[in-house]
Amino acid sequence: MYPALVLFFFSLFIVYSAWVVLFQDVGSYGPYLSPFFSPAVNVRVGGFLIPPALWVAWAPLAFRLTCYYYRKAYFRSYLWHPRSCAEPEPSRGVYRGERGFWIFNNLHRFALYLILIQTALLVYDAVYALFNHQQLGAIFGFGNLLMVVNVICLLLYTFGCHAFRHLVGGSQDCFSCHATRFQLWKRVTVLNVNHETWAWVSMFTVWGTDLYIRLLVNGVIPHGWWN
Length: 227
Hints:
The chain has about 230 residues and is mainly alpha-helical. It has one domain (about 1-215). About 60% of the residues lie in helices and about 5% in strands. The longest helix has 24 residues, at about 110-130. The two termini are about 35 Å apart.
């Protein structure tokens, strides 16, 4: 069931993301800005608007695609690799691990640097929406709650990342020589233990936040103080 559920929900998210990135030009409603469109970039070439999300979506895509948890997930679901080392590989050639085509996964730590910047921008977006919600006629709305929850979940996912854990202290051979980094490493390890959980939760919060803003933009949800 696990590989099947991964295949189902990841595929839905990929299809939804592709639809937003390629075919949606609007990603904001009042002070709300979709995580797919942050930072907001609008470039026209010969009068044609390049889909704004194209400038943004590649960074989280690179980060999640090369993430250690997501590697395990798509290897076991899309590529049908067994969940246990005790299970033999299917008869389809020699298993080469993450070499050859999959060597691009080594870019994960560089994707982390990019996503740290984008996450900081999402924090700014959430704070900006909180302080400017009066544009919608109230001090606080449901969209504010979604944006705050989303950015918290993304922070927990990002700061629990294996590459971030390595960055703060995992590269040290002597923890007693670097007490401060050791303490940071231990705190990041607490998040890392639940990295799979935050990977899933943050995927759904990104999805839910964009969907809510999109429903407002298209008038499916009527304007009101609760927005």
